[in-house]
Design brief:
Oligomer: single chain
Number of strands: 9
CATH class of the largest domain: Alpha Beta
CATH superfamily of the largest domain: Glycerol-3-phosphate (1)-acyltransferase
CATH architecture of the largest domain: 3-Layer(aba) Sandwich
Structural class: alpha/beta
Number of helices: 8
Order of helices and strands: HHEEHEHEHEHEEEHEH
Length: about 260
Amino acid sequence: MPRPADPVGRRSPFLFGAFGWYLRWLFWRKFNAVRVARAGLPVLPAGPIIICSNHPSWWDPAFFILLQQTLMPGRAGFGPMDAEALEKYGLLERMGVFGIELGSSRGAARFLDISGRLLAVPNHVLWITAQGEFADVRQRPIRLRPGIAHLLRRVPGVTVLPLAVEYPFWNEGKPEALARFGAPITAGRERSVAEWTGLLEDELTQTVDALAADSLRRDARAFKRVMRGSAAVGPIYSLYRRVRSVLTGRVVDVSHGGRE
């Protein structure tokens, strides 16, 4: 049976905050750094926002929560997820995630109903991986499911922000968590579902391509560093270098490429 259709009531601001601190530790442990491209950093509007993202990795929901806390701390974030997958990660319901039965008319109706009610509140943010399944960042063309297009026709005036994310390896033993926002779009009824779908696919493709270009340059100056991770060549060798630094009195940098 589907969960009660009240993600606002199930969301716990306290648990969301506590989970955010856990994610900071987790990303510190697993990534070299979390970065957002300076180009396209959004000036957030006063009203509700839809984030339309690509979906390359299992890390995406956690990355969204981290971005929500660091870039939009005064807002409440929500997002749909496959109901079957959500059964494995029930804690995410307390973070604002709500289950949707993919591929069914009942699931589509539930998505539109819940999303419409969420976007009636000015400080709400709805995070949507509109591809609907994992897809490599190099996959072309980028295809989106039509649910988000139906939603945009129902919520005129809401701001849509394309978002590209990827997790490349640069010069360290741990990957980077990279994000880039695209140009804002205003929702409305002037376009058909097909036209909205095509527009969002084009805008998201441009944003994913722009992030790929940023990533290829490996220039940390092009990004705002949201948080620093732990960098080390390897635990044994890093321990050796730290002990040696204590004995010699020299400051040691255990990263491979040097901290920016």
